[in-house]
């Protein structure tokens, strides 16, 4: 995979050495077992895959290069570059301003923009409506577009099935930038509706089967269907695509469920199912699949606790937390600063959307076993900082130094 030129502050000599060694030993990416960092009384197990993905590194490279190449020009980002507070703050400190927040609320009016300005489109992509608005002002959108190719792949897949007259069901978080962008692209081609989870998929299936009053659909799915959507006409042929960072097992379960609904309703077989259900496998991105599989491999270790590092509004990170939580106490932290002491930690509960303080988070057991992973928008430097902070509680600072050498760094 391409090597990107990203600021050195996001890299970690330790994590790079580990990743390089694992890559050399497992070129086909078949081994999802974690890497053990033996630090005496502290055993850290690092997930096989975690951290910056292709799309994030690509977006960071383009953004910082744009800043370097355009001194004196006003540079805006449509919204957060990626869901990582450090990266966003670094861009803002270099003078970049955000036009919208992550929910699409306007922070700066588009009317302030001129044709001389640069507007960077983030890795999630954007809606056709916003792209048009920028082009109307005279802003070149293509040159500074960091939309991830794996998001574009979903749009292409949507367009393919739209051409065959399928309605598109998007499995995603309705307010998430990427889902709003995918919805916009899909809705330009064919009727489209967003479902956020299995509960909504089941409700949608009730309308597909005709078990519910069609009028109720428009209230229940308010804001989640395309203009002119006709619940009786537009749920006869469907295909499912997804936000690239959803939980793989959820997306699969929703697609399987809706497919089965069509099979039962229309008396189909595997050979005839395409009459009512399009095959759209593979719209999760490679990083989501790798990171989730690596967490599954990580959870084979009987550990005391898990730490997941990442931005609190990061979808892919919260799914890693969800997987870990099922097995053991899990702490979702945005940086090492959230580890207050060996007794106290501040961590994010994504169910209540609040940070909370936990006492007695580190087990007394020796060696204590800690699993660590991070989201696709989290710099490796943050993971190293977390490792170093915990190692400090076990007088293992020097042992961390020698680890870099032992992994060939
Ligand atoms: S998580 Fe996947 S789709 Fe999103 S930016 Fe990374 S590689 Fe692209």
From TrEMBL:
Cofactors, names only: [4Fe-4S] cluster
GO terms of biological process kind: dimethylallyl diphosphate biosynthetic process; isopentenyl diphosphate biosynthetic process, methylerythritol 4-phosphate pathway
Pathway this chain belongs to: Isoprenoid biosynthesis; dimethylallyl diphosphate biosynthesis; dimethylallyl diphosphate from (2E)-4-hydroxy-3-methylbutenyl diphosphate: step 1/1; Isoprenoid biosynthesis; isopentenyl diphosphate biosynthesis via DXP pathway; isopentenyl diphosphate from 1-deoxy-D-xylulose 5-phosphate: step 6/6
Instruction: Spell out the InterPro entries in the cross-references.
Output: LytB/IspH
Q: Which GO terms describe its molecular function?
A: 4 iron, 4 sulfur cluster binding; 4-hydroxy-3-methylbut-2-enyl diphosphate reductase activity; metal ion binding
The protein's superkingdom reads Bacteria
Q: Which Pfam families match?
A: LYTB
Q: So where does this one cross the membrane? A: none
Keywords, in A-Z order: 4Fe-4S, Iron, Iron-sulfur, Metal-binding, Oxidoreductase
Protein name, per record? 4-hydroxy-3-methylbut-2-enyl diphosphate reductase
Source organism = Puia dinghuensis
**Higher taxonomy:** Bacteria, Pseudomonadati, Bacteroidota, Chitinophagia, Chitinophagales
